[in-house]
Amino acid sequence: MKFKLIALDVDGTLLDDDHNLTERTKQTIQDVHDAGCHIVLCTGRAPASTLPILQELGLEGTMITHNGAATVYADEKGQALVNEFTFTLSEIQPMLDYVRREGIHFDVCTPFNMYIERIGEEERLMYQKYLISPKLVTDVTELGIPLVKLTLFGQPEVLDRVQREWDEQKLYGDLRMIRSGDLFIDVMSAKANKGNALKALADELEIEPEAIMAIGNYYNDMEMMAFAGLGIAVANSPEDVKQAADEVTASNNDEGVHQALVKYCLELV
């Protein structure tokens, strides 16, 4: 097989819009794995909400989580942190002041934990959908620990305004702000992205980029798609993400991951 590592985004790519895996996709991924290929989930999710997907696939191994800010190895013994890109609470204080003032929901994450200051029904349902159990605290700034991600959750028009104003004011300083979905904005270390995390893993495994396939659907997937020898966008991706990809497969609701793996892996075995 030409490819030795397959990097898969999860939401909007591997899972359909109801956050389900099809049986055919699971079987195809297992066939590719059995043929000797590393399967790596590369997601904005935390390890705790990524692990159930890995287990549903019948796999263990490395997960690139928090959009590249934390890489974790998982097996039957548990989870171990491989790599992280952190920042301090003081670096996000101007952004915390903004979202508190504007009433925008946010959470902050360490590799294995998420913290929130308030939660409503809309947020509760969102966390439930993503298999997340955040810890409620009075003030996240009192945590006093390094973080890997600040995430905002809100309606697209609200986050559009946040992006515009934070860009104009450079409110995120030396950190990196990305739109990880229509309803989410992530702020992380400038070094943290799926591409850098994938490169670090590939170096460790001694796998050349030409032997890597990456499949994604959104702007936070573009670095890993660019790093991989073959970067594939699913059909439900924004148009500029599809234009940046090497190939386009079917949508997440039409088993695009299955179709890509059959075409570029199994048919070439």
From TrEMBL:
Keywords for this protein: Hydrolase
EC number per UniProt: 3.1.3.-
GO MF annotation list: hydrolase activity
Top-level lineage group: Bacteria
SUPFAM superfamilies membership: HAD-like
Matching Pfam families: Hydrolase_3
Record CDD domains: HAD_Pase
Protein name, entry field: Cof-type HAD-IIB family hydrolase
